[in-house]
């Protein structure tokens, strides 16, 4: 019961105060990073060491696993996701895990509801550029670099460099 109460206090503290503190690269950033980490590590499904959560990130904490030395970028909007170790995330990244149903043409789209949630997997040592969008159910392989503004609609192989909308592999890092 005490743990549940403590989690509620951390959640309220994050969404009322910590979310709005300046980014970690501002003066006092080390203290801000530490405060967010200490509060949020208890809220994630699992949380590694030295995790960075930048300001204004919208996170469904109970649906997120994050590994050591990884970060959630400035203004990030993420869904059900597993983030590996040593993952860098630029600003304004969107990771979706749910979509709308659209199978029937006899019912308006707005009335068809949501599809089942599909978690996203981001493996270790990944660099996600600014304003990247990752769609539900996608797996980002180990060592992948995703260029700014890419829209990732399908799984990306290990050590690939991907760009574009929809994202495609431009080369493999070897």
Write the layout of secondary structure elements.
Layout: H1 2-16, H2 29-40, E1 46-47, E2 52-53, E3 64-66, E4 71-72, E5 77-78, E6 81-83, E7 88-89, E8 94-95, E9 120-122, E10 127-128, E11 133-134, E12 139-140, E13 145-146, E14 151-152, E15 160-163, E16 168-172
Parallel strand pairs: 1-3, 2-4, 3-6, 5-8, 6-9, 7-10, 8-11, 9-12, 10-13, 11-14, 13-15
Antiparallel strand pairs: 15-16
Structure in words:
The protein contains 2 helices and 16 strands. By secondary structure, it is an alpha/beta fold. It has a single domain, classed as UDP N-Acetylglucosamine Acyltransferase, domain 1 (3 Solenoid), CATH 2.160.10.10. The strands form 4 sheets. It has a 5-stranded parallel sheet with strand order 1-3-6-9-12, with no helix packed on it. The longest helix has 15 residues, at 2-16. The model has no long low-confidence stretch (mean pLDDT 95).
């Amino acid at each position: 019961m005490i743990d549940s109460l403590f989690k509620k206090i951390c959640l309220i503290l994050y969404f009322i105060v910590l979310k709005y503190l300046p980014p970690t690269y501002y003066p006092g950033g080390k203290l801000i990073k530490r405060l967010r980490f200490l509060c949020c590590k208890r809220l994630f499904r699992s949380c590694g060491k030295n995790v960075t959560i930048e300001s204004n990130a919208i996170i469904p904490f109970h649906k997120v696993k994050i590994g050591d030395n990884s970060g959630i970028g400035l203004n990030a909007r993420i869904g059900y996701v597993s983030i590996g170790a040593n993952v860098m995330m630029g600003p304004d990244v969107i990771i979706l895990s749910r979509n709308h149903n659209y199978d029937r043409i006899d019912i308006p789209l707005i009335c068809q509801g949501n599809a089942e949630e599909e978690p996203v997997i981001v493996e270790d040592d990944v660099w996600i550029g600014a304003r990247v969008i990752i769609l539900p159910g996608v797996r980002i392989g180990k060592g992948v670099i995703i260029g700014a503004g890419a829209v990732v609609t399908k799984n990306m192989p290990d050590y690939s460099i991907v760009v574009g909308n929809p994202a495609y592999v431009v080369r493999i890092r070897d």
